[in-house]
Write a structure and sequence with these properties.
By secondary structure, the protein is mainly alpha-helical. The chain has 32 helices and 8 strands. The strands form 3 sheets. Strands 3-4-5 form a 3-stranded antiparallel sheet, with no helix packed on it.
Length: about 675
């Protein structure tokens, strides 16, 4: 998963003014006359400066100026005293601001990382004070201070904001420094009360704790014959480990199918909130998912269903984010996430996903999977894993190998350099990157948390049981390592701090997927099958199909929330299930032959990371295009080059990386060709 700090930072950068909402009427709307006077005066003072640039800076600064900042004349005076006209002086100002913001953002990132150690890492019991500190956002008042001391207005005046469309239209002619100037202009685009950002951080922390402890003790599950079919010590975090255990059971035929059906039933109980509350993260109770009875030592126990807590957490996130709407020119969280964070409009994303999921190629791949399985497809076959080389290998054997290699976090950290060398990095370059990454044992499934200032490390937090890292954990850890490599390159090898990172989270997910697909290669397990390339393509198309449906559900649920902002948690649950079944029936039933499955609603991301899932789906599209490019280019050199491009807009980045726009058609066409090869 993408480093969480970037998600929180995108909220923090919108928070600024420590006022109560009823005081917002004190905002000062500057008159056209004072704006025109200010613009004219600046043009007279600076005849060689572009009139359009002067007007853009003044109007952008005025959009952020409130009554508490001064009257109209004070605004005019501020602009006349602080506008920087010459390119040389603007460059000097930029370099200073670039350095100061790296110091501020980087160290607040480090503080957030440290404050969340107790809830993120596998150490002691979580105490109430741990939850309080994990929900505290130390940077919540940062931009408030920057407005108070007028630094924000110096930035807005001299590095004004450019819209997404303007970046798309003009960006191809910009220099790297001009791109960096535009990214500095993205910092101050709206003023949102800091208490709203603080509240969202608290909601996020509470949700993260809820999700990180949502463990299902698979060894306590009892089938219809009253038999336990999973290892006694198997604990599966929802949804990640439940999904991965379904994937792991494809080679096991009948017993594997029985396990998959049971886990699907567990998922349905979680989605529908019929899961007994007392079996969640409880190693002492047996649970019969088919009858939904709970017992201990053969004696039936009373059990109440989880009281729609899952949907209350989602609703809490919505309420916290919606409260910011009136303070932003992008007046819904949906717009802020897609137009500002992803830099692509939500309707375009949805249209792209719908077009992909409507392709007849998916029906043909579904028929192939059904034939390979020797049975009709089941809803959980959205996670069919049989195209991968590992699908023919007993996962117990893989886990035996990974446990020996990585009995604890330190062992993985020490091996990162060797992993990078296997991927084609030189000894020197692999050491340079690996020295900036540290590994820690996660309480939940794990995540990659990147550094935000040079001199600090990125953190790979991954789940490592007491008996060592199993294959599921290893597979996820390799994914997170891809994030860490991106985070390191796009910070330490960047020409300007304002350009650090990637266009949006899809691009870091891309590298994470690329690393993850090489997990067996990194274990020195190779399959010489000449059809491997075709199978990899089919696997990628099927994976994109799965996650696009989940992402579509995420988007449509948020649209429903905005249409029904006063709903309660039970109403939300009912409509999430309804929408998930509708999407299934429209885009999956034609392939699976089964209507009304709610399985798309199982993803934990939809609860804890609002609208994040689209990054995975978009990432698969980008991944395919980069993988195609990597076929004819050196892996390590290409990864270094393209992740030094930084925060261009998505299409500008892709054109410089691989020479083409982001497009689903190459993947679908490759899927057709792959089918012809394997049939």
């Amino acid at each position: 998963m993408r480093k969480i700090f970037l998600f929180l930072l995108s909220i923090t950068l919108m928070t600024s003014c420590n006022i109560k909402q009823e005081e917002t009427l004190s905002r000062l709307v500057l008159s056209d006359s004072i704006l025109n006077e200010t613009i004219s005066a600046l043009q007279s003072q600076n005849p060689d400066c572009s009139p359009e640039f002067i007007e853009r800076g003044v109007r952008h600064a005025s959009s952020l100026w409130w009554a508490t900042d001064g009257n109209e004349n004070e605004f005019k005076t501020f602009c006349l005293e602080n506008f920087v006209a010459s390119d040389e002086e603007r460059s000097k100002l930029f370099e200073k601001l670039d350095n100061y913001f790296e110091t501020l953002f980087g160290h607040f990132n480090w503080m957030s990382l440290k404050l969340q150690v107790p809830v993120h890492l596998k150490y002691d019991e979580i105490l109430p004070v741990d939850e309080m500190f994990s929900g505290y956002n130390p940077s919540a008042h940062l931009l408030n201070d920057l407005y108070d001391n007028k630094i924000a207005f110096i930035v807005a005046l001299n590095f004004p904001f450019y819209s997404l469309q303007e970046k798309e239209d003009q960006g191809k002619n910009w220099s790297r420094k001009e791109w960096a100037y535009s990214r500095m202009g993205d910092i101050f685009t709206s003023r949102i009360p800091s208490e709203l950002g603080q509240n969202f951080a608290k909601v996020q922390a509470e949700t993260d704790i809820y999700i990180s402890q949502y463990n299902i003790h698979a060894g306590k599950l009892i089938n219809e014959e009253g038999v336990k079919i999973f290892p006694d010590d198997m604990v599966l975090l929802s949804h990640w480990n439940l999904r991965d255990e379904i994937k792991a059971n494809y080679p096991l035929e009948e017993i594997g199918l029985e396990k998959q059906k049971m886990l699907y039933r567990v998922m349905c109980h979680i989605i529908e909130q019929t899961i007994p509350q007392n079996v969640i993260d409880n190693p002492n109770l047996d649970w019969h998912p088919y009858t939904n009875e709970v017992s201990q030592n053969g004696t039936k126990e009373e059990a109440q269903p989880e009281p729609d807590t899952r949907y209350q957490k989602l609703l809490d996130n919505f309420i916290a984010l919606k409260a910011m709407d009136e303070f932003s020119p992008l007046n819904t969280y949906i717009r802020r996430h897609f137009e500002a964070d992803m830099e692509i409009a939500q309707p375009q994303v949805e249209e792209l996903f719908v077009k992909f999921m409507s392709s007849d190629v998916l029906k043909e791949i579904g028929k192939l999977i059904s034939n390979r399985l020797g049975r009709d497809l089941q809803p959980f076959d959205i996670w069919y894993d049989g195209f991968k080389a590992r699908s023919t290998i007993n996962e117990d054997l893989l886990s035996e190998k990974t446990r020996k290699l990585y009995p604890e976090a330190d062992a993985l950290e020490k091996d990162i350099q060797n992993i990078l060398i296997k991927l084609g990095y030189s000894k020197e370059r692999s050491k340079e990157i690996s020295d900036k990454i540290t590994v820690e044992p996660a309480r939940g499934s794990g995540h990659a948390w990147g550094a935000a200032v040079k001199g600090m490390k990125s953190y790979l937090r991954t789940r490592i049981p007491d008996n060592g890292m199993d294959y599921k954990g290893y597979n996820i850890a390799v994914h997170e390592l891809g994030h860490n490599v991106e985070q390191t390159i796009s910070l330490y090898d960047m020409d300007y701090y304002m350009m650090n990172g990637v266009p949006n989270t899809s691009f870091t997910e891309t590298l994470a997927f690329i690393f993850q697909r090489r997990d067996l290669f990194l274990l020195d397990i190779n399959d010489p099958n000449p059809l491997n390339e075709a199978y990899r393509t089919l696997d990628l198309v099927w994976s994109a199909y799965e996650i696009m449906g989940v992402s579509l559900l995420d988007m449509r649920v948020w649209k429903w929330l905005y249409e029904n902002p006063n709903c309660n948690k039970t109403e939300l649950k009912e409509n999430v299930i309804r929408i998930s079944k509708e999407i299934w029936s429209e885009y999956y039933a034609p392939v699976f032959g089964i209507d009304n499955s709610p399985v798309l609603a199982i993803y934990s991301h939809a609860i804890s990371y609002p609208l994040y899932l689209s990054a995975y789906a978009y990432g698969h599209i980008i991944e395919f295009q980069i993988e195609q490019y990597l076929k004819n280019n050196n892996f390590a050199q290409t990864v270094d080059r393209i992740y030094q491009l930084g925060r261009l807009t998505p299409n500008h980045w892709m054109n410089q990386a691989v020479g083409s726009d982001i497009d689903i058609m190459p993947m679908l066409e490759a899927g057709r060709e792959a089918l012809e090869k394997v049939l």
